[in-house]
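Structure ticket #2291
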Amino acid sequence: MSISALSPIRFLECVSGFLQVIFLIGLLLLLFKAAQHYLRRQWLLRALYQFPSPPSHWLFGHCLQFKVDEELRWILRYLEKFPGAFLHWIWGSHVFIKVCDPDYMKVILGRADPKASLYRFLTPWLGHGLFFLNGDEWFQHRRLLTPAFHYDILKPYVGIMADSVQVMLEKWEQIACQDITLEIFHPISLMMLDTIMKYAFSYQGSVQLDRSSQAYLQAVSDLNNLVTSRMKNVFLHNDIIYNLTSHSRRTNSACQIAHEHTDRVVKLRKAQLQDNKSMKKLRGKRCLDFLDILLLSRMDDGSSLSDKALRAEVDSLMFGGHDTPASGISWVFYALATHPDHQQRCREEVQSLLGDGSPITWDHLHQMPYTTMCIKEALRLYPPIPSVGRKLSTPVTFPDGRSLPKGITVLLHFYALHHNPKVWPNPEVFDPSRFAMNSVQHSHAFLPFSGGSRNCIGKHLAMNVLKVAVALTLLRFELLPDPSRVPIPTQQLVLKSKNGIYLHLRKLQ
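Resolution: structure written out below.
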């Protein structure tokens, strides 16, 4: 009886002792993390004392000062006070250097620092392709893929770009007759996916008329939101914690849809090249497209690309080749809609070239100086890539004498650079004359597609399709803003609008 009576008491004592041990271990871990946080913060404060910082909380950094989708407004607020570079505390012991000065940009872009560690959140989707490789491996892939964007490849595809734009405009004509506003980013994104599928992968169908592509675009949109959200939330940086969240499950689901789309593209081309006759014809082509080059490529050691590397490059181009130009075109259309005088002058220039119904050609793209100026000014105000990050592999000293130690993450903020009043007088004013032939700019004052050796490999393709889209659209429509829905720029992987980009379309007679 005595043993039976004491058993529950002993059990409770054991449980109590176990809980005490757990509490003690938890307390020690908390104290360790607090000490680690304190020491890291003190080191950062000493290492970065030369750089100013907006007022911040010792633990939460700047996170309490703005909502996630208001970061761009917050940055612009401090540009006049801190026009060179300033600290952005993500957490009390986690900080970025926001760079918005062209001299600083030139120094960092002239180095070979790796991408910031935050980009690892993209690898489940885009793999380890050209976007994320470093060193010799990056150089090999860049050298391998550069021919796919040579002028000889771009020239004959102007007609294909025009066909994709015309399909979009035909759909817009039906909407214009209904006198309603149109959210333009989605149809432009679909048009750009159609274009990149034909340009880079020799796709024979029409993505814009195929509903199966809608699932891929939705997956890309979801991944944009999910990855950006994870980057901006320090609690989600830890893989163990993140894998327990619904965000992780949604990311995995969206990645699967995106990979299925790109896998179909690769399998289709491989199937077309099974017979010797098709392969011989491919090898005899004067100019190979992006996927041709990948399938026939050999690395320096003689090996071909692995299936994993092949998919990474295809996924990267599929995303970058449609989403970035779609952002650029959408914002250019909005800028022209809100500046009708400039829009009309562009239209008259295009009409002088194509008003008789002539198809647009490569030569026409170089005969639109004012339209090109307006496109560049819109890209200044709304750069498709708001920022890129680098993690310093060695210390760096800037022209003004300030320096940064190894291991610091530098964010090259192109949106801030383009709105910097020290670089661009009256930066919020739409003024295409900034890009006139006789204008003088700092070599790194205008970076809509980044700069240096790691600039956007498809920047010429993007500029060409921008010109084609603007020219053909202005021939058929007058673009008008919707005053009730003014877009709010928000920083994601590409520059988006928090509330969409809505325009009225008025068909020209």
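Closing remark: The mean pLDDT is 90.
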